[in-house]
Amino acid sequence: MSNTWDNIIRLIKNWDIRISEHGYDELAADGITVREIVAESPGGIVLEEYPKYSKGPCVLIMLKDREGHPIHVVWGIPLGLTSPAVLVTAYRPDPELWVDDFRRRKK
Description:
Number of helices: 3
Helix content: 25-40%
């Protein structure tokens, strides 16, 4: 597990979070609640890490909704800061773009 993800989990558990405007839009579009994402994220599986992202380090995780369907979530920490954890986006992955049970991008 990465240091970024460890830090994000700690922030999530302390409710030191912010939801980006884009994140709210994507959640609404896919019928996903903030409560569901926050509750399930600490148990998520890290799929990709972006330690050098221009807005700050972030990770793409996968978690499952109540029905067992996958949700991808990007969490980050603003560049140069130690908090809050920012929910950048969350979406239901497109099976045309992902393989291995939505864990790896198709090439």
